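Revision sheet: structure tokens.
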Amino acid sequence: MNQFMTLAVAEKISALRTIDYLREEASKGSRADFEAFLTAVPAAEPEDDDRFA
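Predicted:
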């Protein structure tokens, strides 16, 4: 039972730290930079080996 509780707490802490990390990284970006990046991507069909099944 003690190991189960320890694992549950560790997983919760990990999830919270991940959310904090993603929010921090997201705050560094800008929508304008993202859209500029997307306009640089060519409008082409993916290669056959790069398609979803």
